[in-house]
Amino acid sequence: MKVGQRAIFSLALAAALLTGCQTTQQVQRFGRPTARMLGLKLQDAKLDYVTALFEVEVDNPYPESLPLVSLSYSLTSDANMFLSATPITLTTVPANTREVFTLQDKIVYERLLRALNAKAGSTIPYQADLRLWVDAPDEGLVKLPSSSQGQLALPGAPELAVGEKVYHALDVIFVPTPQDVVEKMLELAEVKKSDLVYDLGCGDGRIVVTAAKKYGCRAAGYDLDPQRLKESLENVQKNQVGDLVTIEQRDIFTLDLSQANVVTLYLLPSLNVKLIPQLEKLKPGSRIVSHDFAMEGVKPDKVVTLTSEHDDTEHTIYLWTAPLKKEPRASGIE
To answer: Where are the domains of the chain?
Structure first.
């Protein structure tokens, strides 16, 4: 190496070491940011979600603002655990301050209750472990752990009135089925142009719209939630399948299913079982497909799994063919 090159290399190395020392000195001078969880509560239970409110105190020792980036956490109650994460937008801790923030996460209430083996309206012991990520000067993303424990009040589930009948919200909750799972369900059911597809609890209408667009068949979606009905009708109009698809506000447990060739489900196991008397009236050869949940007491013809590219999660799809094949039922279904 020539003398000039060695000099340049030495200067570059010295600059790099100096930068590293400055960063270390900055951390030592200002200290590190910290977070302390002060409390947790759930509120605003809707048909689909409940809002979790985390009260967190964040100490920013830097002479510049500290952006909050994301929050991940676990809730544990009697060895049952629920995991979630949420991004945080446009929230910063001012320079050289300690400030209390209320961070929100919208949670699918039914999933939370099932994970914690709890009932709406009850109070449970909890342990919360948080990981708050901040964008620290010269350090990048830094994880600030904190925890809290105590008693957590679970809001009562709201009710939905349709006409003179009142329904429990957790019976009509909507959790979207990923589009690639929708397509696999219809493929497994071997949908044909001559079929009539019923989607029980149609949500935003993605199953009936996909069936009409891809196979040219007629389809009918049924739901109770006015918001979901609005979304379904908009989806039908957007995709120009109004000549093939109908959307109705109906109680699925009062429907006559005998005209359907294919019935699609994404309901809780107990609701699948409740539908059995209606499903037994399907014409021989009619197909039933269910996303993620089996039907206790009825043997499926096929069970397939699919890892969705939309949520990187494994999904299970069950297929039954009429007439249903009964098998002994276990007790304790939920």
So the answer is: 32-153, 174-321
